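Reading a protein record of the kind used here takes only a little practice. Think of the row as the fold of the chain written in a discrete alphabet. A record is reproduced here so that you can trace the correspondence yourselves:
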Amino acid sequence: MAERLSVAQDVEGSIPSSRPNLHGPQQLYSRACRVSVTSQISENTILDTPAGAKPAWLNSFVPQRGLGSGHLQTIVGNFLPRPPFRHSAVAETVLVDPADGSSVLCHSHWQPEPQRAGRLTVVQVHGLEGSSDSRYIQGIAARLWAAGCNVVCMNMRNCNDTDALTPTLYHSGLSGDVGAVVDHFTARFGLRRVALVGYSMGGNLVLKLAGEWGQRAPLVAVATVCPAVDLAPGSDALHETANRLYEWRFLRGLMRRFRRKAELFPNRYQTEGVGPIRSLRDFDDKIVARYCGFRDADDYYYRAAAARVVDQIAVPTLILCAKDDPFIRLQPNTRARLIANPNIDLVETQHGGHCAYLSRDPGNETHWAEATVVRYLMAVTGERHGC
């Protein structure tokens, strides 16, 4: 059955004062484009909206046949290959914390001079236990490159075998690392416009930074897929019986990384006496909180969550969420804050799983979220090169 869109939108035609005019007199992104969408497979009638109200960047999502389950979408989406991205990347370490010498590894794809500084630069941040090599990061990097953008694929601290680059662990509150990467490349290349893209945990990081930065240049847009903006309920959801396989996989990687850090920095980390780690909350309570300056897991979840600052986001921002995501939980009060912010486009679909969104449409639309993110960024920034 065809998927219907229930659309609630603002009908004013002017750009709201809280959304900066990014392109001078040409109003490329009016408030009339803003949507809060819930996709449903039903016979419900479309809410009272004018014809053609759905913005051009937003296509309906219909899952591939046989992949209507969020678990199936998540699992298959993790392994389904994309066309290879053959453009070579420039590897560079970026100092993100001079106090302890922490650096992160970035793999960048730069458009040629002299147009590089004027092109939109997109900094991508992966999810928990991912890296710049993750399939979804490479998939969207290829699309952005083809659209004429500079692309920076950032690895969080320790990820992609970079444990020796920092004495610290990585966690969901390190939004300043993303900001340091933006500042580094802005200073180096004179970048005039930067957008952020984040998946899952990376989505929390980029939304948190956007809330902290407000209208600070050169940030002009943000797009996220299944962001973990409410950390506590998401962590607890991973411990539900149906999700224990995902939790086990995350914990296996996290504990392997922690043991490696203890080998590299034995005076800082101790594996003995930690006690049994049977859940992600256990890991965050006994390891992240202990070594990253939080009182306990609840203190970490509160202070690191983007939900606290989403009302301060002041640039065009897309949030894609699936209602059948196995473990991302969006609290009602957080959803209300997202919808209340005129700079945020919240799109919630009935299906899609976690960061999967495998569509029935063929070709480039198979990975619906990646195609939607690129269309959104092109629309709100006015980037037209390569499109």
Remarks:
- Residues 86-321 form a domain with the Rossmann fold fold (CATH 3.40.50.1820).
- Residues 244-264 form the longest helix (21 residues).
